[in-house]
Amino acid sequence: MKKLNLIFASLILLLSTPIRAQEIVPQTYCNPLDIDYTYMVYNSARNISYRSGADPAVIEFRGEYYMFVTRSFGYWYSTDLVNWDFIKPEQWYFEGCNAPTAFNYKDSVVYFAGDPAGYGSILYTDDPKSGKWTPTPSISNNIQDSELFIDDDGKTYLYWGSSNVHPIRVKMLNKDDRFLETGVKKDLINLVEEEHGWERFGENNFHPTLKEGYMEGASMTKHNGKYYLQYAAPGTQFNVYGDGVYVSDSPLGPFTYMKNNPMSFKPGGFTNGAGHGITVKQTNGQYWHFATMALASNSHWERRLCMFPTYFDDEGLMYSNTHYGDYPRYAPNHPTKAGEHCGWMLLSYKGKTTVSSSKMQIKKSTSTDDEFEITEMPLEKSDDGEILSKVLTDESPKSFWVAEANNDQQWVEIEMLKPGQIYALQLNFHDHESGIYTRTEGLRHRFTIEVSEDGKSWKTVVDRSESYEDAPNAYIVLTQPVEGKYVRYNNVKVPGNNFALSEIRVFGKGFGKKPAKVKGLIVDRKEDRRDAFLSWKPVKGAQGYNIRWGIAPDKLYQSWLLYDTTEHFMRCLDRDTKYYFSIESFNENGISEKTEVIEVE
């Protein structure tokens, strides 16, 4: 009887104890996009081997999505805009497509162009998933950076241009007769650097000798009867590479400069740039802007892709949400917050990093004169004899570490400054003398990841030791978050001769308080009205600050994320526009309240 009473009491206790439900982790994505980027042929004669993805053309076709990328020798397919599978076509341009264009015509045929030689052989298919395409004869030339647009009435337009002198142009084609030119041809828009600061050439819109930016990457979006002609400036290798818009009532113009330009802009943070893209409408009506980010470590033309939600406001102004643009963001399937920052912060910033070996560690950045500033860092060890690395948690994709070998004896361990709840990781691998110069099948990234609270007892949270995934910017979300202060990457084998990384980023939620509201924001607009100097008081415990600005207090569409500074000089304003500014601080625990908006004449 006593035993029965004990069992009964235990059962009552069990039933009365609330069951802790497992947290449902939402689907997210993180820029740069996690796809199997192709190795480039640009600098193969100089033995410079690197992956790149640029100039995306993304279309929706019969409820699914296709993404075409410069010189990738094929294209990618997705059902959800997050997970992409590569399709190798049966026949394709010999050197791969260059600055491609694609158009879905009434869910019946996909048209495509992008010959790197500049000749206009347009391909078409009604089954892009099969990889089977039919070419038209070559009927046009000089169509670098082209955009094919077919209006609702079937009239067909080809926009093109890539120059620091010549404008974006348009010519009409006959879709029903091999896309022959009809004779209608017009100059449309050009850069006006003396009015638009963000169009000025160079890193941070400054170059000591070259003043003219490059206008390229035309793209057309029709929305509510208006034609939004998008264009990229000032150069793909720079942090300020962005997309602007001119608007018209006709695909032939005249076009008017959109007053809140640029519509896609990401000059700060880990990975910079958001230019030369395309805007695609999801099946639920949400727009997304796919664009090019500047990695520019092995080469200025080393690039990655990004995706941002895009909107049209009450004035019909087009804009993208790039705030915290390289932090995890809700996936397109989220019912109310698709593309918004999901609240996971950076836990790994400036964490103490030890490595198994070190062939070299390079600190690298793009200077204002279009060259690289390169520092080879001396070998540094801790008091315990551990090899240290300071480039793997510095929030710079250009800096990198190279191990002595590419085997299962190589590892990286990060001791974060503070413990946190870990939700996701991003591994940014670096190509160091990889010796690969084209699309190569069978590449794999194999590794495991462990987490520890004390640096002694470890738990494996990721096991890709036998993976067949090729993931140069692997973004990995844990099925359930785990508490930890230490993260250890254990290499098995990755592409290339040496295991090399540019950054390990750990995302989640810290256990402390988010920083206080910023005080003392001052915006000093200079005599050259395209320039402004900003300063503010430091906030205790802040990792960094996010400046927001725009053309109205409720239209702060632009942002610039900065680490470890309380001042900033920007050269990206439009000369004749009144602006409004606000700022917030952030750390591993969250984002502060925004400051009151400041009006700046």
Automatic annotation (TrEMBL):
<keyword id="KW-0378">Hydrolase</keyword>
<dbReference type="Pfam" id="PF04616">
    <property type="entry name" value="Glyco_hydro_43"/>
</dbReference>
<feature type="domain" description="F5/8 type C">
    <location>
        <begin position="355"/>
        <end position="509"/>
    </location>
</feature>
<dbReference type="InterPro" id="IPR051795">
    <property type="entry name" value="Glycosyl_Hydrlase_43"/>
</dbReference>
<dbReference type="InterPro" id="IPR000421">
    <property type="entry name" value="FA58C"/>
</dbReference>
<keyword id="KW-0732">Signal</keyword>
<protein>
    <submittedName>
        <fullName>Family 43 glycosylhydrolase</fullName>
    </submittedName>
</protein>
<dbReference type="Pfam" id="PF00754">
    <property type="entry name" value="F5_F8_type_C"/>
</dbReference>
<feature type="signal peptide">
    <location>
        <begin position="1"/>
        <end position="21"/>
    </location>
</feature>
<dbReference type="InterPro" id="IPR006710">
    <property type="entry name" value="Glyco_hydro_43"/>
</dbReference>
<dbReference type="InterPro" id="IPR008979">
    <property type="entry name" value="Galactose-bd-like_sf"/>
</dbReference>
<comment type="similarity">
    <text>Belongs to the glycosyl hydrolase 43 family.</text>
</comment>
<dbReference type="InterPro" id="IPR036116">
    <property type="entry name" value="FN3_sf"/>
</dbReference>
<dbReference type="InterPro" id="IPR003961">
    <property type="entry name" value="FN3_dom"/>
</dbReference>
<dbReference type="InterPro" id="IPR013783">
    <property type="entry name" value="Ig-like_fold"/>
</dbReference>
<dbReference type="InterPro" id="IPR023296">
    <property type="entry name" value="Glyco_hydro_beta-prop_sf"/>
</dbReference>
<feature type="domain" description="Fibronectin type-III">
    <location>
        <begin position="514"/>
        <end position="601"/>
    </location>
</feature>
<keyword id="KW-0326">Glycosidase</keyword>
